[in-house]
Design goal:
alpha+beta, 6 helices, Zincin_1_sf, 3 strands, Metallopeptidase family protein
């Protein structure tokens, strides 16, 4: 998939998420990179052989408070190559993107990994 095609698929996945999520998101930039840097892998605690599909960097909304004006936006990075390694079709790439974006946005709203797993299970049940 070309970078442009991948970018359009990311945009489609973003638009496919519930509208109320976007209405509550603040100060977040979503970027696309080919692959995570060694530093991003190290800071994320990703073990050799595992893939990092997305990365949230910022201050979750639950931590906002006084003095939080004029801060840099949170950043959600989506990594193209690891996602493509997991999925060989555009439909599968789209599904992985939706899940990855949902996961990283949940971090923006203050959820930790355990909380996100609970949200993801609930979301899968609702989609049935």
């Amino acid at each position: 998939m070309t970078e442009e095609e991948f970018e359009k698929t990311v945009e489609k996945a973003l638009n496919d998420l519930p509208k109320e999520i976007f209405e509550k998101m603040e100060n977040v930039a979503i970027t696309i990179e080919k692959r995570p840097s060694p530093e991003q892998l190290r800071k994320s605690g990703i073990r050799a052989g595992n893939l990092l599909l997305g990365l949230y960097q910022g201050i979750p909304k639950t931590k906002y408070g006084r003095g939080f004006g004029n801060i840099l936006p949170d950043k959600i990075t989506i990594f193209q190559e690891p996602i493509e390694k997991l999925a060989r079709s555009e439909d599968k790439i789209f599904g992985i993107l939706k899940n990855t974006i949902f996961h990283e946005i949940a971090h923006h709203f203050g959820f930790d990994e355990k909380g996100i797993r609970i949200l993801e299970k609930k979301r899968k049940l609702e989609e049935r």
